[in-house]
Amino acid sequence: MNTSADLLNSLKIDRAAPPPPPSRKGLWIGLAVAGVAVLAAGAFFALRGGKGVEVRTAEVVAIGNGGTASASVLDATGYVVARRMATVSAKVTGKVREILIEEGQHVEEGQVLARLDPVDADAQRTLSASQLEAARSQIASVQAQLKEAEANAARLSALVGQKLVSRAQYDQAVASRDALRAQLATAQRNAQVASDGLRIADNGVDNTIVRAPFAGVVIAKAAQPGEIVSPLSAGGGYTRTGIGTIVDMNSLEVEVEVGEAYIGRVKPGMPTETVLNAYQEWKIPGKVIAIIPAADRGKATVRVRVGLDAKGDARIVPDMGARVGFLEETKPAQADVKPGVLAPGAAIAQRGDKDVAFVVAGDKVAQRALKLGRTLGDDREVLEGLNGGEQVVLDPPDTLADGARVTVAREDSAADANNE
C-alpha cells in the first residue's frame, strides 16, 4: 500500500518548482530572427525614406518610325565619307606667293586658291615671245628677196626665148627663186614653232595659279606664303605637296561594314535610316547606293555605300560616326502602335522570371516589366514597357524595389569613383 501511494505522489506536478533553463539552440534561433528583422527594417527605411540609394541613370532613346512601319532587318555602324574630295596642288614646283583660302571657306569651281611666284614662268614667256617676233621678221625678209627673185626669173624667161640671154643665166635665176621659196617655207614653219612655244609659255604662267577643281568647302589649309610646293614629293620633307583640301558636301554618304553572314539581307536600293552619333534624335532617310563587290578577309566584312536624303545639310560633315538601319517596307502602321525604344543593357534586371527596368520619377523609382527585342551592341531594343526620353537606373542593386527612394549620382561623382 505504501509503495503504491508513493508512486502516485511522484506523478503530481509541483507548481512551486522553478521552470527548467532554456536550451542554447533556441536562444541562437531567436537572435538570428531578431537580426534579420533589424536588417529588413533598415533596408526598408533606406529604400522608402531618408536620402535614398544613390544610382546612375541613362536616357531611353526612341527608335521607331511613324507613318509606315519599316522593320529594321539589320543595323550597322560606319562613317560619313565624301565621294568628291581633292587635295589641290600646283602643276609646277614653285614658291607660294599668296594663299587665298581658309578652313571652312566655300569656294566655286575655277576660283583662285593660291598663286606661286611667276618669275621663272614670266621669263620663259618673254623669251618665247621674242623668238616668235624673230621668226616673223625672217619671214618678211625672205618674202622680199623672193619677190625680187620671181621678177628676175620672169624677165629672163622672156629674154631667153629671144636668145638675148643664155640658158644658164635663166636657170640660175630660177634656182635662186626656188631656194628663196624653200627658205620662206622654213621661216614660216619656224614662226609656227615659236608660236607654239609662246602658247606653252603662257600655260606655264597659268600653272602658277591654283584654282578649285569643283565647288565645295575647304577643310584643310596645307601651305603658307614663302613655302615651296611641288606636285611630287621632294626629299628631305621640306616641300609641300598640296595647297589645301576641298570637299564637295553634296557628295557625302555613309560607308558601313556589314558582316559576311548578314550581307544577304542587304539589297541595292533598299531603304535605310541613318542616325549620326552627334545628333541622336535626327533620323535621316536614305537608300543603299551599292554593295562593294569585295570582302575584307581579316574582318570578314563587306563595305556598303548608303546615300542620304539630306544632302547639303551643314550638320553632316566627313568622318562623322553613324548607325545605319536597313529597313524592309511593310504594311502601314496602325495609329495605336507605339514605336520601340533603345535602352542600355545595363538597365535591364531580372525579378523572378521577368525582365524589368526601374524608371526614375522624381526621387523614387517605378518597376516596369519589359518585352525585349534585338540586341544592338551594348543596347537592347524594348518593344513594350518603356518610352523614349525616360530615365532608367543602370546596374540596379538586387535590393532595389518598386517605389524605392533613390538619389541620382552626379556625373562628376561617378567619374571620380571610376578613376579611383
From TrEMBL:
What is an example of a Pfam family matching this protein? Answer: BSH_RND
One GO cellular component term of this record is: efflux pump complex
**All copies of domain Multidrug resistance protein MdtA-like barrel-sandwich hybrid, residue ranges:** 84-230
Ranges where the CusB-like beta-barrel domain occurs: 254-326
Alphabetically, the GO molecular function entries are:
efflux transmembrane transporter activity
Membrane-spanning parts = 27-47
The residue ranges of the YknX-like C-terminal permuted SH3-like domain are 344-408
> Which residues does UniProt call coiled coil?
132-190
- What keyword terms does UniProt attach to this protein? Coiled coil, Membrane, Transmembrane, Transmembrane helix
The source's superkingdom equals Bacteria
Checking NCBIfam families in the record gives: RND_mfp (TIGR01730)
Q: What family classification does the UniProt entry report for this protein?
A: Belongs to the membrane fusion protein (MFP) (TC 8.A.1) family.
Q: Which PANTHER family match?
A: HLYD FAMILY SECRETION PROTEIN, MULTIDRUG RESISTANCE PROTEIN MDTA
* Name of this chain's protein: Efflux RND transporter periplasmic adaptor subunit
Q: Which organism is it from?
A: Thermomonas brevis
